[in-house]
């Protein structure tokens, strides 16, 4: 008996590569990039990233939607969304790539990478001897979920103090994890470097703004606090970031995501001396790593087993 069809609808990725991996992992399933009509009865699963608007509507036998990234805000952007489970991409490869990025940016700021690159451009030989030890620096992870927990564990191995913040209470953690609005104030009061890995939801949109910067730690071993955002561009207000850099509320920032992507050529962020920019490259979704777990979940779901990493629709992540 033939198994249900998989619909692949992605932008920003090469669909041919994803199709090839899906067909390799599920040779007994058909993979299509468009439904056969508005009410295609053969499609049982959808694999998406910034999918074509409306492509998920009217599929009578759709069982689940899989995001090929950790974020699912692109799915909730639909005007109408089928009432089926939505599954976030959780894979060791994706988690490890994000932890690599976080460790890289934390260490770069900690060991004065921006300063020394600026000095190199000026052919200036000068050691900044004000170099605190990692144990004297507290890294706060804003959004302490699967990705944040792994990044925090690796930063602790490097010697940093680590704290976390989560909208939901966490138990059994080896670090202090704050929750709620009061917890956010406590978190910001101790973090020298804030790493944002929050999902984008109505509650978090624009959270990296003047209101948050005003509550950050004023001075620490690295001077003014440092912000690293590898979550979503919609979490930040870039005009507020620039203003905070100019008036000293922020010492430096690393941004992998932006309000508009690609980042417009006329953005002031490009040439700001205390801004590090990467092109949404912190944790690239790799088909060979993410497709097999998806297919395993589809097969298990067909056998009646529950899906893992299902999104809470009310929370938005």
UniProtKB/TrEMBL annotation:
The keyword RNA-binding does not apply. InterPro entries: D-isomer_DH_NAD-bd, NAD(P)-bd_dom_sf. One of its GO terms (molecular function) is NAD binding. Pfam families: 2-Hacid_dh_C. Keywords: NAD, Oxidoreductase, Pyruvate. The keyword Electron transport does not apply. Residues 105-282 form the D-isomer specific 2-hydroxyacid dehydrogenase NAD-binding domain. This is Glyoxylate/hydroxypyruvate reductase A. It comes from Oricola thermophila.
């Amino acid at each position: 008996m033939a198994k249900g069809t998989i619909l692949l609808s992605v932008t920003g990725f090469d669909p041919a590569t994803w199709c090839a991996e899906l067909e390799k992992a599920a040779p007994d399933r058909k993979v299509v990039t468009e439904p056969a009509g508005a009410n295609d009865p053969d499609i049982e699963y959808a694999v998406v990233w910034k999918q074509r608007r409306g492509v998920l509507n009217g599929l009578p036998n759709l069982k689940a939607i899989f995001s090929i990234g950790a974020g699912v805000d692109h799915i909730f952007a639909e005007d109408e969304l089928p009432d089926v489970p939505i599954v976030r991409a959780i894979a060791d490869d994706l988690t490890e790539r994000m932890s690599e990025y976080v460790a890289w940016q934390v260490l770069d700021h900690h060991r004065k990478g921006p300063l020394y690159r600026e000095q190199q451009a000026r052919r200036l030989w000068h050691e900044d001897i004000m170099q605190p030890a990692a144990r004297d620096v507290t890294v706060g992870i804003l959004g302490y979920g699967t990705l944040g927990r792994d990044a925090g564990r690796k930063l602790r191995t490097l010697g940093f103090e680590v704290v976390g913040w989560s909208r939901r209470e966490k138990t059994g953690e080896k670090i202090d994890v704050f929750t709620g609005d009061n917890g956010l104030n406590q978190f910001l009061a101790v973090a020298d470097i804030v790493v944002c890995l929050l999902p984008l939801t109505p509650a978090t949109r624009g959270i990296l703004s003047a209101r948050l910067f005003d509550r950050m730690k004023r001075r620490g071993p690295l001077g003014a606090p440092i912000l690293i955002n590898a979550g979503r561009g919609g979490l930040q207000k870039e005009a507020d970031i620039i203003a905070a850099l100019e008036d000293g509320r922020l010492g430096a920032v690393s941004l992998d995501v932006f309000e508009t992507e690609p980042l417009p050529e006329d953005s002031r962020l490009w040439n700001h001396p205390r801004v590090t920019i990467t092109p949404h490259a912190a944790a690239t979704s790799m088909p060979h790593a993410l497709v097999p777990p998806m297919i395993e979940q589809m097969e298990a779901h067909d056998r009646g087993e529950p899906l893992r990493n299902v999104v809470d629709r009310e929370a938005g992540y």
